[in-house]
Amino acid sequence: MGCVVALFSLLIPRVAILVIAIFTEYMSMAYETTIWPVLGWFFMPFTTLAYCAAMVNNEGVTGGWIVLMIFAVILDLGSGGASAGS
After folding, report:
1. Ramachandran region, residue 63 (left: φ > 0; alpha: ψ -120 to 50; beta: rest)
2. Rounded distance, CA 69 to CA 46, Å?
3. 70 alpha carbon, distance to own chain's centre
4. CA angle 79, 70, 5 (to 5 degrees)
5. How far is Cα 31 from Cα 9, in angstroms, rounded to an integer?
6. Pairwise CA distance, residues 1 & 22, whole Å
7. How many other β-carbons are positioned within 10 Å of the β-carbon of residue 51?
8. Mind listing the pLDDT tens digit for each residue in 10-61?
9. The model's pTM
10. Residues 14, 45 contacting (CB under 8 angstroms)
């Protein structure tokens, strides 16, 4: 059961990226090319979502969006290393 929960938690930001990319124009508004969202989907999904939110809502990464970006990077880096200790 623990593996199912871990796999589901890793899948959530990737599902959100797919839903945003398919049903909205936010990814095309935030990114000029499609390579960055695709790479973000594989390597840093939380950071990809945070950057997309910052660019769509604020036209840039300033103010509180910097805090969100730093938190997303830490979350992405921490989520991959947690399973290595077990």
Report:
1. left
2. 9
3. 12
4. 20
5. 25
6. 31
7. 22
8. 678 888 888 888 988 989 999 999 999 999 999 999 999 889 989 988 878 8
9. 0.79
10. yes
